[in-house]
Amino acid sequence: MAAQRLSSIVSQLTPTTGQNPLSKITSKNPDDVVITLAIRTPLTKGGKGGLKDTPLDGLVFKILEQVVRKSRIDPQMVEDICLGNVSDAKAAYYVRAACLAAGFPNTTAASSVNRFCSSGLKAVQDIANQIITGSIEIGVAVGAEHMSTGGDRLTRPFVDEIVNANQDAADCLQPMGQTSENVGKDFNISREQQDRYAAESYRRAEAAQKSGWFDDEITPITVKVDGKDVTLTRDEGIRPGTTYEGLSKIRPAFPDYGDRSTGGNSSQVTDGAAAILLMKRSKALELNQPILAKFVGATVAGLAPRIMGIGPSIAVPKLLTKFGLTMDDIDVVELNEAFASMAVYCKDTLKIPYEKMNPRGGAIALGHPLGCTGARQICTGLSECRRRKAKILLTTMCIGTGMGMAGLFVNEQV
Amino acid sequence: MLEFRTPGFNGYAVKYSPFFDSRLCVSTGANFGLVGNGRLYILGLTANGIECEKFFETQDCIFDTAWSEAHENQLLTAGGDGSVKLFDIGVNEFPIASWQEHGKEVFSVHWNLVTKGTFLSSSWDGTIKIWAPESKTSLMTLPIHSCVYSAQFSPHQPDIVTSVSRDSHLRVYDLRTPASASNHLQLAIPIHALPHRSGIANVGRLPAAGPTECLTHDWNKYRSTVVATAGVDG
């Protein structure tokens, strides 16, 4: 009898009677992890753009300064900052020193994570998990990459035992362009399909930029370019007037591996940073922080390294199944366009209605600063959700060496 | 603000006496009502704060209590063991009456505020029973088929009974109607489906909600057609 009373009360605490999966994830509970700030720098061209002279530590410093300024949170309350970055082995030094310089006290800790192109999302997941388990109450996830400095490729092959162990291990040596050509060939994504997809990405990005849609995501920063102070406000990767015809003339970028991926239908080499401030809903209400969105969850899935591009087609179903959702329940999808080959494959395989997917263009037009992207997608996706008055955001990306990651968010500023 | 502690027992209901403005009763159960004894405290508000006049112990948790409207020293308890008991403050230790008809926990008891001669109880066994203190058995049983967390007589019309239950419905019964297949049931209002009428003020935007258990309700004492409910969905 006591057991019956107990189970009756427990079922009242986590009511499932009549609740469909969508109302379960959109329900507002005090322990939800919520996002109270999501900002990014403009994305600039690697090697020659506005951030070329701002190395990673300077970039992280700038975005963290903006976090303090825009969130109006007392920096003392932030307990941990996690930087997602791929290329720089010194990333952990940089984020720690940068946060101390940006206004955080030395009681705020910092760390870095690297899961290649998903590092920004992994940083969000790291902070969120700490909040969920009670390790911290408030944290900042940063995604930043200074591709102008380089350093994202291996400098030597793996040891013989690894290379000779099996095909998958050896395939981790493949450069990303090779994996893109593998996807194009294995799944019959033609050069024309890829160029048409890329043209549409450019068209959407150009329209979004002209309409000012990016204005509420981008936080302008002032940096030195060739010794002079410049305030950066706009994404530089967007090439206005890009057409399919123009793209179809570009020479293949990876002729050793294939002839379908080009500089025009692949993600650009880009510098940029983004930051996400996270805490529990109860804490956000207590501190009067605006609740932008709820972080529902994220997951990673592994697959064959040689076709790493199809990562989202594995990670997304895995994530949606965990929450009992289907693609119909999702309002906006931010799918990283590492290459048009995988973008087309994933869109078709996951049956994502194109009007939901990358409505502001993607990495082909905007750029893919590796570690930044995972956080950048959240900024763009939430801004688009606000614009459409839509709720459910799915972000996803493929990951070099054969993985995919996906994250689920509920926009609460409808 | 005055405070009284019931150590070892967790409160489930507190009621002012309709006869004495300084008398209260509190129904409690050990271990948050999950398992263990129950205790009914009779408290008095004095110049020295709240004092306990006496308490009664029961075998199981007491989920609700209600003062008699007819007798100034008597009160009812709704027991976790399915019993409805009538206590008299002047009689120590034991209830002056005990009715064991419900098959499961009784979650609420309510005395008729208008005719004052009857009371009701509602239970997890899915029924509401109407009683009179003189009668050894219940006068009427209303079947709901779903755990009834709360039931009340209308304070305006003595033959109207309302209930809320686990199946997320507010039900209205009229005891004057002849017993038939509908068992006096007049209205069954699903609480979760909010009617779209301009008269209802929406605070913010209410999401479309699924059925959730409704745990309590109360009549508006001044407006004879208004009832408030509260439930698991918050």
Write up this protein.
The complex is a heterodimer of chains A (414) and B (234). With 414 residues, chain A is an alpha+beta fold. Chain A has helices at residues 2-13, 21-26, 56-71, 91-101, 119-133, 160-163, 167-171, 176-186, 191-210, 244-248, 281-286, 311-322, 340-349, 363-366, 370-388; strands spanning 33-40, 44-45, 80-84, 109-113, 138-146, 221-225, 228-232, 270-280, 293-302, 332-335, 392-399, 403-411. In chain A, α4 links the parallel β3 and β4 (109-113). In chain A, α5 crosses α15 (370-388) and α9 (191-210) crosses α13. Residues 195-206 of chain B have low confidence and may be disordered. Chains A and B meet through α1 of A and loops of B.
Secondary-structure element order of chain A, N to C: HHEEHEHEHEHHHHEEHEHEHEHHHEE
User: Total number of helical segments of chain B?
Assistant: 0
Which spans of chain B have pLDDT < 50 for at least 5 consecutive residues? 195-206
Q: Which sequence of strands runs across the widest sheet of chain B?
A: 1-2-3-4
Give the class of chain B from helix and strand content and strand pairing: mainly beta
Strand content of chain B: over 45%
- Our Rg estimate of chain A from Cα atoms comes to 21 Å
Structural class of chain A: alpha+beta
How many strand elements of chain B? 18
